[in-house]
Amino acid sequence: MSWFTENWKIKLVSIIVAIITWYYVRDIKMNTITIPVPITYEQKPDNLYWKKDPPRYLQLSVRGRQEALKFPTGNLKASVYLGDAEAGRKQYKVKFVAEQIPDKIEITSMAKAIKIDLEKAVRKIVPVKVMVQGEIAEGFKKGKTLVTPKSITIEGPESKIREIKYVQTEWVNLENAQKSLVVRKALIKPRQSKIIDHQSVEVQITISTQDNTREKTISGIKVEVEGLDPALEVRLSSLEIKIRVTGNPEVINKLSADSFQAYVNLEGTRFIPKTGAIMPFDTESEIDIIIRILTNKKAIDIIEIMPNYLTVRFSVKPEYIKEPEENNDPDDNDNNGELNDGN
């Protein structure tokens, strides 16, 4: 017993130093690594789109002995449930099952939630742009190009849809072409959006032999508006356009601005009385101009419209703007009366 009591302070210090040394030596052999774990986003509502691309990986920090840290990580996975997600930038819980990690490995840090930025879906009608490549055969000329339908509906996040001016077709090859052609071409889906109504269009391109034709530019064709919501007024970036036509010289010589009708179809824009909003946007750029030939249709080809598109700005007519309701609270009237009596 005396052995324990003699110099007990020195012996106690020695024991403490030994314990600290043991933990220190143990920690020297411990390493920490960070593992990127793929994230799966589950049950995202169809009417929501990524405003910014979400994180692809969960950064998982683990600690353990060097030999234990050599475990396979290819099957690790994390998930984020978005079944109740809403538009906006919000945090969502990250689910990671700790049992995926071996027993001798300790998780030291891991994000419990991540911020995700989502946007509501909007729809927009845009024109179809036919993409043409190749030179037609010598002695032939390219006439007008017709596409059916002329416009399609796309859907996607508002920030992206606002930037989309048109949807392109696959390339139509005219290399050494000697006759008119009719082909069906798929539409190229814009990034982060989807095409609602048509996945392909019919393209007709007129090719004819070069003959005794004449070109003429006709100015002063007034632009009309069709399909406008009765509650809306519009301002066009140009009230008149000009076109370049080709055809039989006798017919071409007789043409004037009255031989054509130019218009823009605005049936895709509507005023919503309940919210007071103009949908989908109060300004639409690159609205396709449509030309009707009113005389000698078969003898004329329109080869250029200048400008080809118009910008349209919408506003609500005053009679459709809902006035704020007046306050008819009888208590307020009484108070006003008291103030008047006091004066």
Give me a quick take on this structure.
The protein has 343 residues and is mainly beta. Helix content is 14%, strand content 48%.
Order of helices and strands: HHEEEEEEEEEHEEEEEEEHEEEEEEEH
Q: Strand count, sense and closure of the main sheet?
A: 10 strands, mixed
Our measurement of the CA-to-CA distance between the termini, rounded to an integer number of angstroms, reads 102 Å
Quaternary structure of the protein: single chain
- What percent of residues adopt helix (DSSP H or I)? 10-25%
Count up the helices: 5
Estimated radius of gyration? 36 Å
Question: What's the total number of strands?
Answer: 23
**Which secondary-structure class do the elements indicate?**
mainly beta
Which stretches are low in confidence, meaning pLDDT under 50 for 5 or more residues running?
Answer: 332-343
Beta percentage is: over 45%
Query: What is the general shape?
Result: elongated
Could you tell me the mean pLDDT?
Answer: 85
Describe the structure.
It is a single chain. The chain has 343 residues and is mainly beta. 14% of the residues lie in helices and 48% in strands. The chain has helices at residues 2-5, 8-28, 158-161, 249-254, 330-342; strands spanning 30-42, 48-50, 57-65, 78-81, 88-95, 106-109, 113-133, 140-148, 151-157, 167-173, 181-186, 194-195, 200-209, 214-226, 232-236, 240-247, 260-265, 270-272, 277-279, 283-288, 290-293, 300-306, 309-316.
